[in-house]
Amino acid sequence: MSSRVPLTYGRKVIELFRNPKNLGKIEDADAEALAGSLACGDMIAIYLKVDEGNGLITDAKFESYGCAANIAAASILTEMIKGKTLQEAWGISWRDISNELGGLPPVKYHCGVLAVGALRRAIRAYYEKRPKPEWLPKEQTQEEKHALEEEMLMEILANKMRSERHQSSTAQANDIERNE
Amino acid sequence: MSHSDLSKSVNELIESHGVPRREVYLDHENSGMVFPEALEAMVGAYKSSGRGHPSISHLIGWVSYQSLYEATERVASAINCSPEELVYTHSGSEANNLAIMGSIGVSPNRKKIVVSSIEHLSVMFPVEKFRKYGYKVVKIPVNEEGFIDLDILSRNVDGETLMVSVASVNHEIGTIQDMKAIVDIVRDKDEGILIHTDACDALGKVPLDMKKLDVDLASFSSHKVYGPKGVGVLYVKDGVKLEPILYGQVSTQKLWPGVENVPAIIGFSKAVDMMYTNFSEFTSRMANLRDRLISGVLSNVEHTLLNGPRGNLRAPDNVNISFLYCEGEALTVELSMNGIYVSSGSACTSRILEPSHILLAIGRRYEEAHGSLLMKTSPFHTVDDIEYVLEVLPKAVGRIRSLSPIRHHMR
After folding, report:
1. Where are the domains of chain B?
2. What ipTM does the predicted assembly reach?
3. What H or E segment, with its residue span, contains residue B263?
4. Residue A1 falls within a domain, yes or no?
5. Phi, psi values for residue B175, rounded to 5°
6. Which residue segment(s) compose the domain that A40 sits in?
7. Is A40 among the residues known to form the active site?
8. Active-site residue identified among A72, A111, A122, A123
9. Which of B115, B131, B149, B155 has the most A C-beta neighbours within 10 Å, making it the best mutation to test the interface with A?
10. Average pLDDT per consecutive 10 residues, chain B (411 residues; last block may be shorter)
11. Span B37-276: which CATH code?
């Protein structure tokens, strides 16, 4: 069993939590994606405007349902990718996000991972109806899989609960049998 | 992260957080204020009456023994039991552990433990450990307000049952169980079953009479009655056998080794005394503030759900509300910046993957549990404090919701 310590957020996280940069939805986004789930308590939406000619990200916005680290991670990521090409943006890792935020506590690494997952989904969405560049991996990356896993986790937990409930009702049923 | 790194970043966090203009502390679930009267008693004890070891034979020891005994007498008289029936530990969690793990060797033929599905983790975890040793653990479901299903309880207790453990008052949603009905059902089935109640949230909040309650074991915690941290108590009914779970040089009590925290126990007994001397004044004040807070939030903030029962069957201090489409940990940080200190049942706050097992047990969905806030009123709060919370909270929820992609789908 691990110990429990308070969560700590650096100055940058608190600053972005108070005044998030690039918050909101881009109505006429060229690409957008959502990662995470409400039930998981962790969700990030990324919206991109892309210059068709040179592949530069001209604008990026986010929305986040989650903790302070989640909000800060999504916000800083949109700052980091503005003016970058889609290929450069694809290469950003959750560690880059954590570094940019001055370090995330280990239990919050997944916030950075989810932000990367959401961005990569948005980049994939951008290329859905366009010729795919060579640098775009055909297989899902770890970060994209993580988002999927978070979404599927709920199914797993829900099943676990169902089976626990089943157990207590079977215990009850056994007892009824014995009484009769 | 090492503790020294952690400490550096906590320091930085405290600095960037800043000191709020106004503060209202509502996190008495986790710990908080100590009665000034209790503090004063403790200072006196540290300086003289409680500075020694109560089992040592010289003047300072005898004086410490005497102050310890008088403190215990005060607690015993508040809950109508004998001082000999109280065992001090250093937390409510330890008292729960002693109750459960201390009974394992006593009746080796009984291999079944029955608990409610909404017990504190200091009951749940020891019980889970028993399961590994081949015990059968049955968690009795509760209804949507947290009341235990008496029918299912009745069908699950039998001659193989070692112990039934149900909290008198739930620490998260404030449900006050019908302990008399529970005790009657269990005693009726088999006189040999031990009945334990985690009464940490009952002490000082509801009338407690151990003779009438007729349980075998009951746990209490000092900081839950605005006493100092570091004191827990297990009531062990006269004649009930338990084995110690810690070993070492015993002091005045045989079930818990080591020196008693005499000054803190003196502070605790003063706090218990304060709670029961002013019982009707304090509980009615807490309940009024509770109701003001609940109705103010439910009527001013959309998409909210009260967790736990309403009225007299709810602990006088307990407020637990789910804010849908609003993540609880972000909300606690937002409120902290406004000087309002609360806790949340969100998975993020607990740092495990699942949100509060209690909220899930009463049928809340995961997203409803993630957005829950737990607030506790106290004898120290004023109407003004609650008005300040009612002014800040709707704005805080509004801001957190405005960051979220779900807002496009809120109806």
Report:
1. 12-28+279-409, 37-276
2. 0.86
3. helix B262-277
4. no
5. -65, 125
6. 11-179
7. yes
8. A111
9. B155
10. 79 90 96 96 96 95 97 98 98 97 90 97 94 94 98 97 98 98 97 97 98 97 98 98 94 93 98 98 98 98 97 97 94 96 76 77 91 96 98 97 86 62
11. 3.40.640.10
